[in-house]
Amino acid sequence: MALKLDMSKAYAKVEWAFLRDMMLRMGFESSWVDFIMQCVSTASYSISINGERGSLFKPERSLRQGDSLSPYLFLICSGGLSSLMRLAKEEGLVRGAKYAEEDLKLLIYSL
């Protein structure tokens, strides 16, 4: 099995509850976490069609690309994912696979 991650789409998949939990587990002060979550979760969007603005809607997850805070928040989430994967391996829930070097070269060239 090979795992290929498309990091360009990953910002849109960040669950705010996971981000909040990760910051608290990392020891951030709860008032700071509340402030950051307020910044992340107050965005709203509308779509303009033929020059007319539609209704506002609010996303329920995702980090805004281009926001100067987003890369740091994404690193917090990716660190959490890494920790969860390491824990799953330690508990025997996932295991590695053996491969031949030729197979790996073939896989890399096919990507």
From TrEMBL:
Residues 2-88 form the Reverse transcriptase domain. InterPro entries: Retrotransposon-Effector_Assoc, RT_dom. It comes from the Eukaryota. Pfam families: RVT_1. PANTHER family: NON-LTR RETROLELEMENT REVERSE TRANSCRIPTASE-LIKE PROTEIN-RELATED (PTHR46890), RNA-DIRECTED DNA POLYMERASE (PTHR46890:SF48). This is Reverse transcriptase domain-containing protein. It comes from Gossypium stocksii. The lineage of its organism: Eukaryota, Viridiplantae, Streptophyta, Embryophyta, Tracheophyta.
